[in-house]
Amino acid sequence: MNKVLTRVILLGGLLAGVFVLSALAEEFLFRSTISGSNPNTVIGGVPSGGAPWTVHRGAAALTGDGRLRVEIAGLILVNLGTPGPVKSVSGSLVCGGTGGSVVATTDAVPLFPEGDAEVESRVNFNDTPGPWIAGTGFTNAAEPNSEGHN
Question: Which residues have a Cβ under 8 Å from the Cβ of 71 and sit 6 or more positions away?
Fold first, then answer.
């Protein structure tokens, strides 16, 4: 009976260790929702776009190993009800709060006509102390989309 109990305790400890290591591997330094933007707002020295936009759903996360992930669903320019001319977005990491500065920006990824995009990139934030703000930027807006908005 003691051997069985010892094995159960050892197995339980081993499983607990595996779960702890898994959790540590996915250590989040930053997680937030994304809700939209207002014109004439400056975050980290970067002015917002010229038109207000919103998203149906959005989230951003930064892991301890430098992975920045931004997921956007249903991004629209409020006055158009569509993504309008925006064809691509990128994710930026701002350190130091709203008065801080951009320390990393991902490459641009396509913004689909439905307003969906997914950014996943490894960024180097050079051990810059937080707090961090991650978001999306319109700095990579390209050609008008297929709906013909200019």
Answer: 57, 58, 59, 60, 117, 118, 119
